[in-house]
Amino acid sequence: MTKQSWLRVSAVLACLAVSVLLPLLWDRTGADLMVYRLAGDTMLTDPATLYSVRLPTLLLPFTYPPFAGLVFVPFAPLPWRLAYWVWIVCSVAAVWVVVRHALHRRTRTAVMVPAVAACVLTEPVRETLSYGQINLFLCALVMYDVLDRKHHGRGVWIGIAAGMKLTPLVFVALLLVTRQWRALRYACAAFCGTVLIGFAAAPGASWQYWTRLVFDSGRIGPAEFAGNQSWNGLFVRLGAPSGGSAWMVAVLATVIVGLWLSRRLYDQGQPLASLSVCATMGLLCAPISWNHHWVWMIPLGVALTRVVSADRPLLRATVAAGWFGFFIVAPFRWVPRSAGREYAWTLGQHFVGNAYLIAALAAVAVLAISSMRVRRPELVSGVRLPTGPSRALPGRGR
């Protein structure tokens, strides 16, 4: 066996060991996975009660479209501990996929292993794993669909991801503004297909979800909680009403700037930065973006590292360490949280308590400034070519 083969085997074994050991170190009970399993079981037994059924010891409701309940059916019959570990193993594998696409598909295993380990240590990934959340799978599906330009049916996985949880719909807008028409058609068709499948499997629950529950953000949790790192969370903690005029103005401005910058970065041959800006736009604009939704800080951090330190390895390492170290310590956890204590924050505590949002805005600002320093690509024989430092980036063009 070659040295490279040994490294790959060691990487797989290390990921499996981490996947098995991590659940033993948490106080969490995999609450979200419990709800997912209940949804899967309900789809098999009584689909009409999908949004009313609750676990005896956990009153959290199921908040995803009915199609997602079908996706969770295979986990329903498994013993709980086995289901949790299988979920963790698959989630760590999803981290590997995310990192692989964020860096480069040819990145050496010796680099991939510590990179994946660093990402697992970050608070959004830790929380996603401990709760048994779906975020990492959605992130991996979208990144594969957007960045791997060789696979057939690009756009389908975005539609399927949106069918499981509506937040990936923001990437349909990315396909639209970057004029990826075929992928856009596939994404829309796939999403509509998931809706139709949901109606076929659970017509009553589907009607309830798409006519009423889809507009009820209150089922997700209290908007003022510090874990909500979105514009809405920031304004609510400052005393504004949830979904008020301040939030709507911020959302409108964020969408305009976010889509413009996503398009500009894509045209400059920076698809990872374009994708990351679009994902950040979605996180900022959602009524509630829990801290574990911020797994998108992985591609955003890689894109940031590239533009500020393209030819300086030491600076690149410093920026990467600073960015991922920031999300490992998760400053928003340093301030008083829950039970409405967020309403009593001082000005300094508001800066700390909105740490993810502020860091994301700073990263997007750096990407925007960097994009201004790159000449717009010129059309050569009908093909748009990137200029400047973007030549070295993979997956450029359409």
TrEMBL record:
It is an enzyme of class 2 (transferase). It is found in: Cell membrane. Belongs to the glycosyltransferase 87 family. The chain crosses the membrane at residues 6-26, 58-76, 82-99, 156-177, 184-205, 244-261, 314-335, 355-374. It comes from the Bacteria. It is a multi-pass membrane protein. GO terms for molecular function: glycosyltransferase activity. Keywords: Cell membrane, Glycosyltransferase, Membrane, Transferase, Transmembrane, Transmembrane helix. InterPro entries: GT87 (IPR018584). Its EC number is 2.4.1.-. The keyword Glycosyltransferase applies. This is Alpha-1,2-mannosyltransferase.
